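Lay summary. Proteins are chains of building blocks that fold into shapes, and those shapes determine what they do. In this project we predict the shape from the chain. Here is one chain we studied, written as its sequence of building blocks.
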Amino acid sequence: MRYRWYAYAGIATLSIAALGLAAEGPSGRGGPRQGPGGPGGPMEMPRIPVMTVLDTNGDGELSAEEIAGASQALKKLDANGDGKLSRDELRPQFRGRGGPGRPGFAGGPPGMGGGPGGPGPFGGRSAAIETAPVPKDDAERRILKALREIEEKQGRMLNVPALDGRFLRVLAESIGAKTVVEFGTSNGVSAIWFSLALRKTGGKLITHEISADVAALARKNFETAGVAEIVTVVEGDAHQTASKLTGPIDLVFIDADKEGYLDYLQKTLPLVRPGGLITAHNMNPRMADQRFLKAISTDPNLETVLYTEGGGLSVSLKKR
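And here is the predicted shape, written in a compact code that computers can read:
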């Protein structure tokens, strides 16, 4: 069976079969996976490796931004410059990447990424990650319901996947964040995840959005989730509006123009309290700005780790 994946990004049509990269079934060979119905039952179609490479935020879908950048992303993978992608050029791109149908971290325990034997029984994720959040009270139940409805009615837009949102909530609540600053509001999904933490810590979120229309949509979503009093939306070019920020800031989350990450870091790092965090989204080989990555990994005042699940996050601790 041949698998063909099409991406329109000016020009981009790839035949997986022609590349000899048909998705691996349970035997390690190309072909569909056997579904739960056993022989003759429904077949589970595996995730295609090239799509895995282009799915930079790890949500299992290709957004307009990811499709638009497909040609450039694939060009970067062509290490020998011959205009073709070989198995050897593609294979490293989906080693160590968790997510549905992806190999997990090398050496990880079964069910947490599969370890040396390949994906674990949960497709590279643990059972705990696959389960939905359990609300503690009515307010949290309302927020989680709003998040589900936003995705159903408005689509993914440029939001963080739920896995990343949950992680951001854990970070903010665990450090008792009082002031969180976000660059890149979109329709407010990541801000709502932060609000789950801030309603418990008594904190506030200042989020920056360049589009007035998108900011208006985000405000409606905050009302729906019941977190409007927690979130302040600042409209305009954040490279300019960020100059009005004052400290101390407990946590910074950067998810806006990728080439602007370094500027956001430079503007907010002096305002972040010792022990505070600077986090950034889409930190993966295809989207991360190397200048920003170098800055957060070589500054002696920072301790940086990379979280490679979901869309990829960097977490930098400002040392005390």
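What the prediction tells us: The mean pLDDT is 75.
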